[in-house]
Amino acid sequence: MDKDFTLLYQKYKEPIFSYIYYLSSNPTEAEEICQDVFLKVYLNIDKFEGRSSFKTWIYRIAKNTFLESKRKAKREILIDEVHLFESSLINRETTPEVNLLNREVHERIKETFKRMEEKYKVYVILRDIQNLSYQEISEITDTKLNTVKVNIYRGRNEFQKIYRELEGQ
């Protein structure tokens, strides 16, 4: 069991951390929640019934653990440094001008997510950042497939609107 769990952990740690990180925008909080997620998975793996894929089951645990953490904290989510995202945007071999432009885009994206409605932010992150299918998102969020599609559409529109407003500032 421990060897199997280690393999599951290695396979899902990065995507689950990334998902929680985009929800919380705080690397420390994301790491703590991620640890809680894998503890819950370890303690409840025998309860996995196979009605959905393991991937959607663990994402649902991650979503619920994040929401539980948010309720407990009873505070607004603050945007913190985004090391993982920044490293994907900034290539150390590029010119300072390109790095500055990448940082500006990165900051605009962070601010856009910060201003988005929580409801839509989750769908955009799951679809466009985590690259999950509509079906997987439906299972994770316990939402009908058509509602998932509508929320992704609305979320993308909201993202674009906020992003364009920030570009104009």
Features:
169 residues; mainly alpha; 8 helices; 78% helix; globular
Summarize the structure.
This protein has 169 residues and is mainly alpha-helical. It contains eight helices and no strands.
Explain what the structure shows.
With 169 residues, the protein is mainly α. 78% of the residues lie in helices and 0% in strands. Helix 1 crosses helix 3, helix 2 packs across helix 3 and helix 7 packs across helix 8. About 8% of the residues have low confidence. It is globular and about 50 Å long.
Q: Would you report the number of β strands?
A: 0
Count of helical regions: 8
Cα Rg: 17 Å
* Structural class by SSE content: mainly alpha
Q: Report low-confidence residues grouped into runs of 5 or more.
A: 74-86
List the helices and strands and how they pair.
Blueprint: H1 2-24, H2 27-44, H3 54-73, H4 83-89, H5 96-115, H6 118-129, H7 134-141, H8 145-167
Helix pairs in contact: 1-2, 1-3, 2-3, 3-7, 5-8, 6-8, 7-8
